[in-house]
Amino acid sequence: MIGFSFLHPLILSALILLPGLWILLRVMPPAPRRIMLPTARFLEGLIPERHAAERTPWWILLLRTLIAALIITGLAGPVMNPAEPLPGTGPVRLVIDTSWPAAQSWEMQMKAAGDILTRAAQENRLVFVTETAPPPGAQKPLIQGPLDPGHAREILNTLAPRPWSADLQGLARLLEEAPPSGKIRTIWLSHGLDEGGAATLIQTLRTQGELELLVPSAESLPLLLINAPNSGVRVLASGPRQNPVTVQALAGNGQVLNQETRPLDSQTFSADFTFTRDAAIPEDIARFRIVGQQSAGAILLTGDDSQRRDVGIVGPGEEAEAKPFIEDLYYLRRALEPYATLHTGEPADLLSQDPSMIILPDTVALTPDTLNRLEKWVSKGGLLLRFAGPNTAAVTEPLPLIPSPLRGGGRAMDSALAGDKPVDLAPFPKESPFYGITLRDSITVSRQILPEAGAKTAIWATLEDGTPLITAAALENGLLVMVHTTASAAWSDLPLSGAYVDILKRLLKLSGHGGKTLDFGEGGTLDPLMILDGYGRSVSPRSTTRAIPAETFAETRPGPLHPPGLYGRASLREPLNVGDHIEDLKALKSTAGVNVHPYGSSTARPLMPYFLYAALILFLLDGMAAIALMGGFARLAACAILFFVPISPALAAESADGQYADGFTLAFFRSGNPETDSMAQHGLEALAGALKDRTSAEPAGVAALDPAADTLAFFPLIYWPLAPVSVSLSPKAVENIRHYLDHGGTLLIDTRTGSGEINPAALSHLLGALPIPPLEPIGPEHVLRRSFYLLDEFPGRFANGLVWAESSESAGRDGVSPLIIGSNDWAGGWSGERSGGYAGTERQREMALRFGINVVMYALTGNYKTDQVHVRALLDRIGR
Amino acid sequence: MTAFSLKPGALRHEAERAALAAPDLLLLAEETIRSLGTGEHARRRSGPGHNFRQFRDYVPGDLPRSIDWRRSARSDERLYVRQTEEEKPQTALIWRGGGPGMDFRSKSALHSKVVTAQILALSLAILLGRGGERARMLDSPEIFSPEDMARYLCAEQNQTLPPEHVNIPAHAHLILIGDFLNPPEQTAAAFHDLSAKTRNGLVIQVLDPAELELPYEGAAVFTDPEGTIRARLSDTQGIRTAYAQRIQDHIEQVRTCTTRTGWAYHLHRTDSPPEAILRKIMENQS
């Protein structure tokens, strides 16, 4: 396919003019130089011995001819690797796969379609555009044409991948019904999968003319995510794949809850993922997703989401909180508030609000009318949760609306009379909806009400001795759940544990679904709540999206009228997924006689811009040459330098830092903790004030520095307060600080803990790769004790910490330590009354300031005062 | 592109003229003198001066205050008179030529002709002043200090030939520096008039190497400093020898009319350092 051709070869004939141009340029030399010479007078009348012909230099000639040749060639529209012309004559039919797998190959398909339209436009051929998937709201695939290529391109721009399957059989039927006049060449821009009926379509297309098939490479064929039979998800592929597949479980807000990667089975080309429930997260999974896939088929909606449900709690209303027996309510409210909208009140009021779940905490006094209404509500799909308690225990006649009859009286395991001991809750059985809830601490139940032995009921939780704690029974579409102990901590410490919240959350999930079957009443429908577009993005339903009758929902396949998405009502959501009713994926197989190409084999590249750029550059060169010939070369060079000298960024950076270069500025490293930073700022300001008052060192201000970004060279002393939670330093910051210390900087590191000991090893860990010299506590003769004031201790906000400096044996810099490390929170001490937490006396603050002044003097004067340390020895030696 | 189409050299002239201010000229002159490496040129003769020459016996008639009492006290009964060297002040009058042609500077030249002339004039003034002579500008009798002279030399000067009607003290030293590219007759006339006033003269003709050798090649249009086109040449190197001959003739004429008046003549090329010519001159002087 590599080649070279011209879009407008006629223009090349202008190249004939080049020799004429050559001759013309040759006799028109550039203007001679103008030379000022004071002795020019003496040149008058002089005749050269030999008269050289005035000719343009040959290289200028060549340059200018080349410019002309480049412009002519460029205008002729050279193209590298030109696209092959469309084979055959007559109209071209584009069959474009627009069903869900096309999202994966859409860009390739559109590029190929664009190229074909370009060629069709060049060859003046009409175009038919055919989609394989019906557009939204339509029943059949759309065939458009004949169109001129420009119009076809507009239609192409309106196409998008649909989140449903193609109707290849229907398309084949349509094409057969309306055959084109004469043979028509078809190019099928496929997504590479056979969605059923591909063979029929290929057959139909071939009978109507030549067929060319474009397919993506095997590795880029789309994947599909479906529900696996074993409550997990399954990834389907149409063929072997080398790379493993990653599936993510996402919460409703898009947060990735879990993800797993595994290779495809080499036989079935599928992989099953089960996101086990013991991770305590499955209840929040809103959707699964195949990473790296773009189609709606790579999304599997679960229908679950952390949607808030209405929960009614039978009990006195909000205004009656003070009564002691509503402790049950308190516990329930606290547990459910984050997950549900709570209503408290009489059963009749609650029923009128049609909640998903009604809780009866130890409530027995219900009127028959209320009981009837409750029963009706439960059988319609409500979840009634009852808790036992003293009231329940006191009832002797059988209670209505409970999973199983109760034995009279309670079982009090903690009473002195009973021989029983309080019993712990057993782990939840596998069949229980609470399976997977972790019992972090042992949960002890001391009193409960037992169900009748032998009652047929589901037991969702038991104690370790086997007695049921939570029982449940279905009542038509609804559920009755009984917790055989109190909702408060009176009878057990279940309400004190996290499992209480988890159990209620699981029950919330169950509520609204009721039993397995759903009753939507006569002619009930599931309305579209949210649908997926072709790329699996959640969008709001279109006008063409129809509600699905409840009775046919299970059989519904996603399609133009019912795109995949969530259907249902506010309290109930059912997912409709692309992969529903798809068992396996098949790759598109071509039959003999069909040209099959991969996408992206055309690499036509227009070269006109390059030719014109080259001509422009040569033109500039020619201009420079002309100037040079006129003798202005030096000025030309100067101008070129003016044009090309970049404004040095270093120069700009210097001016930004320059504000610190004129004076002496105290500085500290930002810790990232605003409190620490403000403390350091205030402390250093106070210290700067003290320095101005008492010494000749007059700081110009206080600078907050970022060790990674700022130039540290301007600061003789940098105070480094470590925040309670320190982030580790970036390599750039370490390099910067190392450079600072190596070039004479002094760093005062303050751990601000007030503890007496600093473990240099721990500090070294904290400071990362910084060169920490051997450290030792400051001795009695250390110059820090006398660089301005004579000091015995170095208090800050704390007064008990040792201060460490480089040990004198290893002193590299003339005995001046680059590091002073302590824990006394000096900034806190300096700022004194400015910060709230300062507990020290005024005396302590004064001593802190004195230490600060000594440190500044130490940083500024180094070991200058060390001489004074030896003055006695010196005096002794000279004998005075 | 408009910047490039300016008359070549116009920019350069401006820059160079502006560059040499009086302090710069002073510095250049002092540098030149330093590299000259010569000291003061005292005349070894007794006379009123500061430098000690010898003691001699007191003879009646000597002023009593000329007795060196300290020396006399060391001897017995003899009185010594301290004699100092005579430093007879002689007046040197310096003139520097100007005109637009003096601003010319070719690639190989160290300075433009006018700068070279300024350096030579000021260096000579300073050197002569140190040697005890009273150096001043020919056309401004009241300027003596090197700073003032530098300022004067840097001022605009358009005279291509020295003024004829000036007051010249007898035996004054006349130093004329310029390119003397005027027609030789004019130059000769000017020199002749001045030589009537002093026999003691020195002419330094400052020329650019390009003016002497015409180092250009190829097609060119030559203009004089006023912008008048004097020659269009398609092949400059073809007339180089003929041109050199003309220039040499001109120089010879200037030299002849100088030596005829009894003055000294020196040719200075701006591509050779000013020290060389200064050294030659100072050697001839002492």
Describe the overall structure.
The complex is a heterodimer of chains A (880) and B (286). Chain A contains 21 helices and 42 strands. Chain A is an alpha/beta fold. Chain A has 5 domains: 1-30 and 53-82 and 604-645, no CATH class; 92-219 and 587-602, von Willebrand factor, type A domain (Rossmann fold), CATH 3.40.50.410; 223-306 and 530-584, no CATH class; 312-510, Class I glutamine amidotransferase (GATase) domain (Rossmann fold); 655-869, Rossmann fold (3-Layer(aba) Sandwich), CATH 3.40.50.12140. In chain A, helix 5 packs parallel to helix 6. The longest helix of chain B is centred in the C-terminal third of the chain and has 21 residues, at 240-260. Residues 1-19 and 39-45 of chain B have low confidence and may be disordered. With 286 residues, chain B is of the alpha/beta class. The relative contact order of chain B is 0.15. Chain B folds into 2 domains: 2-42 and 88-285, Rossmann fold; 52-84, no CATH class. In chain B, helix 2 (22-36) packs across helix 4 (113-130), helix 2 packs across helix 5 (146-154) and helix 2 (22-36) crosses helix 9. Chain B is built from 9 helices and 9 strands.
Give a brief description.
By secondary structure, chain A is an alpha/beta fold. Helix content of chain A is 28%, strand content 21%.
Q: Name the beta content range of chain A.
A: 15-25%
Calculate the terminal CA-CA distance of chain B, rounded to whole Å. 57 Å
Q: Give the tally of structural domains of chain A.
A: 5
Q: What is the arithmetic mean of pLDDT of chain B?
A: 78
Strand order of the largest sheet of chain A: 18-17-19-20-27-26-25
Helix amount of chain A, in percent?
25-40%
How many discrete structural domains of chain B?
Answer: 2
- The best one-word shape of chain B is elongated
Structural class, from secondary structure content of chain B?
Answer: alpha/beta
CATH superfamily of the largest domain in chain A: Domain of unknown function DUF4159
What is the level 1 CATH name of the largest domain in chain B? Alpha Beta
Helix content of chain B: 25-40%
Biggest interface, CB < 8 A: A-B, 30 and 42 residues
CATH architecture of the largest domain in chain B: 3-Layer(aba) Sandwich
Largest β sheet strand count, sense and barrel closure of chain B: 5 strands, parallel
Low-confidence stretches of chain B: 1-19, 39-45
